[in-house]
C-alpha cells in the first residue's frame, strides 16, 4: 500500500489519470479537496506524471482509490477510464462497503471508434444510456451507487468553467442524473465545491441527454438551460 500524508481536507477518488481524470483532479485540488488517483501504472510510476498534470494529487493503487474517500470525504470516486477499458476495472475497487457506500460518478462517454465491452455495446445497440449499463456492472447489491456527471464538459475547458468564487446563479451549470437521492446529493455537493451550479436532470435514464450526441455536450449552459431537460 502506498503511503499517504494525513490531513483534514475531504478526499475524492479518481479512477483514471489521463486528460479527464487529471483535469478533474486539478479542479478539486484548487477547491481544497484532496485527490487519490490511479491509472494502469503503479503509484511510483504515476507520481512523475502527476507532478506535471495534477500536482498535489496522491497516486494510489486502483484497489485503494475508494479507501480514503470512505473515511475522509464524501465517499465519491470519479470514473475517468475510457469505456473500451472498463472490463479491466474491478467493481470491487469501488464496492459499497462500510462505513458508507461509495458513489461512483460516471464521467465516461462512448466514442465511435471504441471497441466496447459486450455488456456496454449491448446497451448502446439498444440506445440505452450507457450509465445504466455501468450501474448494472458497478452497482447492484453491495455495489456503488452510480451517478452520471462531469462527462459533458471538455478537459480543455474544465478549469476555466469551474469558479467557486462566483455565486451559484452566475456559474456554469453541470448536469447530473442518478436514481439514488443521497448519492445525487453527495455529487451535487462536490460539484458546488468544485465551482459549478449542479442541476439534477432526473434518474439514470436522464443521463442519455448528457451523452456526446445530446444537446448539452460541450455547451456552456446555465441552470435555466438545463432545467428545460429535467424530468
Ligand atoms: N478528455 C475529456 O475532455 C473528457 C471529458 C469528460 C469525460 N471524458 C471521458 O473520460 C474517459 C477518459 O477519457 P480521457 O480523455 O481522460 O482518456 P485518456 O486521456 O486516454 O486517459 C485514460 C486514463 O485511464 C487509465 N486507465 C485505463 N485503463 C485503466 C484501468 N484498467 N485501471 C485504471 N486506470 C486505467 C489510463 O491509465 P494510464 O495513464 O496508465 O494509461 C489513463 O490514465 C472517457 O470515457 C472520456 O469520454 C473525457
From TrEMBL:
GO MF annotation list? oxidoreductase activity
Q: Where is the Pyrroline-5-carboxylate reductase catalytic N-terminal domain?
A: 12-109
- A Pfam family that this protein carries is F420_oxidored
Q: Give start-end of the signal peptide.
A: none
UniProt xrefs under InterPro entries = NAD(P)-bd_dom_sf, P5C_Rdtase_cat_N, STEAP_metalloreductase
| Keywords, alphabetical | Oxidoreductase
**Gene3D superfamilies under this entry?**
NAD(P)-binding Rossmann-like Domain
Residue spans making up a coiled coil are: none
Write the protein's name.
Pyrroline-5-carboxylate reductase catalytic N-terminal domain-containing protein
Q: What is the lineage of its organism?
A: Bacteria, Bacillati, Actinomycetota, Actinomycetes, Micrococcales
